[in-house]
Amino acid sequence: MSGFRFCLDLTVRKADLNEFHVAYEKYFSFFQLACDGYFAMLDHKVGSDTSGIDLIAAETRCAYKKELQLGDSIKVECRVSKIKSKAVVMDFQINRDGEICATGSTTYLFFDYSIRKVVAAPSPLVQGIQVHEDLA
C-alpha cells in the first residue's frame, strides 16, 4: 500500500490549545474526525446509530513530530492499512505545509450495540474499503 487516499483539511482552533500549543489529546480528536469523514465517504456514519454495528476503538497511538499552533492549516490523512475479521487498523498522518507533524494508528473493532458484542466486519463496508484502498 502506498499513500493516503483520504484527507481532511482543518484549522487549529483556540479550543485545541493548552497554554503553549495544541494539547496532546487533540491529536486523537483530529484522527477521529478523519476517521468519521473516511467512513462517511463509505456511507457509514460512525457513532450515529447505537442500535446497529458501529466502530469502537480498541487501541490507539500517536507519535508527535512537530508542534502545532493556533491558526495552523493542517491536513489529516488516513487509510485503512489492515482489515481483520472483526476489526480494521487505520493509519493517520497530520501534515502542515508538507511537513509531517504527527503519525498514528487506531485499531477499531466492529461492535453490535443490539447484542453488546464484537462482531464480524460488515461485508458491504469491507468491500467499500477494499475498493477505496485498491486492495481488491
From TrEMBL:
UniProt keyword list: Hydrolase
Pfam families in the cross-refs: 4HBT_2 (PF13279)
Annotated Gene3D superfamilies: Hotdog Thioesterase
GO molecular function: fatty acyl-CoA hydrolase activity
Domain of life per record: Bacteria
Classification via PANTHER family: 4-HYDROXYBENZOYL-COA THIOESTERASE FAMILY MEMBER, NOVEL THIOESTERASE SUPERFAMILY DOMAIN AND SAPOSIN A-TYPE DOMAIN CONTAINING PROTEIN (0610012H03RIK)
UniProt family annotation: Belongs to the 4-hydroxybenzoyl-CoA thioesterase family.
Name of the protein this chain belongs to: 4-hydroxybenzoyl-CoA thioesterase
Protein source organism: Desulfosarcina ovata subsp. ovata
